Amino acid sequence: MATCLSYDKLRELNTNFAVWLYQTLLNMENRTNLVVSPSSVASSLGLLQFGARGNTLKQMENVLGYSVHDDSVQEFMKTMFSGLTSSSQNTVIHLACALFVQQGTPFSSNFLRHVALWANSSLHFANFREPSKTATQINQWVNSNTGRGIQNMVPCDDFSPTFTQIALVSTMYFKSTWKTKFSVDDTQTLPFTSIDGSIVNVPMMHQMAEVSYGQYQTPSLGRFSVVELPYPGNTVSMFVIRPLDRNTPLSCIETNLTSKSLALWTSNMKRIKMDVFLPRFKLQSHTDLRNVLPALGAPDLFDLQKADFKGISEQNGLYISQAIHKAEIEVAEGGTRASGVTSMVILKRSRMPVFKADRPFLFFLRQASSDYAIKKKWKTLRACPLTSQLHRVLL
């Protein structure tokens, strides 16, 4: 993969990975609510590419769609990561990646150089023969890199004193106020229809504001609407997507989600004054990447016999024994905290619209400069793509 990639192509590949990761998690895990930060997972895989060789390297390149050894990729990632580790106008974004390695392991000086330059990455020695101390060490690092938002990420029984050699940990922390805040006085308890059809009462926030909004219809997705809720500075926004028809399951949108469709929807929205209703919620997900990354096409890095990390150390038998991803997001009145050819019809509005997220919906946070997603989803409360982050809410 020595081809020089354009900035636009790399943005597309990043969002492709975000959507692919999200859809893979949906297929693998029977969770109502899901939160994942593809940007932090991708930064981890990018860092590991510097130390991987042979088939292990090829698998990670295929999963991400690019090689970090390309100068164009490194320049793009430098720009993206600088935007993902910043603070401005009441918005904090912090991306971090750490490798915890068995103490005494000799490292390649070239790999250490890449660690120092890559996405706020760091390398730590740990004694996996003392699982309790190692778990405390990792949890303290996670705590300090997520604004104390994520506690007790790893239990001590996650580590094998005999076989654990490298633990890969990545975090994404996001905290911001809304550009237009929801008033606490306007929040009321309203019904939310869960994915199974049951009704639950949830605290529903409300605001009347001018927002970017679109109603669309495609043969595969049916009718759906999208609203953008920006944060101060307009560099990061939350996009909320939900079917217009109550009988249309959210899965229709999820299974047909692509980077091109996301770009198409967000570029065709119109400014309009409307009533917006959004549940107040907090979501958290813990994902073992040892199951997910092999499903994406990268099994060798976890295989004691096949892993090739001679770029990290000449020591034999080096492999990734732990790869943990934990993400959370909290949405409240004051703001948010988070640790081909497409056929589309734009529907015309017949009256002042009301966007009411009172049934399963998908939302993602997008950084304007990178188009890489933090994705989340609410069905019963589930989450989906910062740069893009995806979330799902099902309640």
Automatic annotation (TrEMBL):
GO CC annotation terms, alphabetical: extracellular space
Pfam families hit by this protein: Serpin
SMART domains (UniProt xref): SERPIN
Record-linked SUPFAM superfamilies: Serpins
GO molecular function, one term: serine-type endopeptidase inhibitor activity
Residue span, Serpin domain: 19-371
Gene3D superfamilies in alphabetical order: Alpha-1-antitrypsin, domain 1, Antithrombin, subunit I, domain 2
Similarity remark: Belongs to the serpin family.
Listed PANTHER family: SERINE PROTEASE INHIBITOR, SERPIN, SERPIN E3
The protein, known as: Serpin domain-containing protein
Annotated organism of origin: Hymenochirus boettgeri
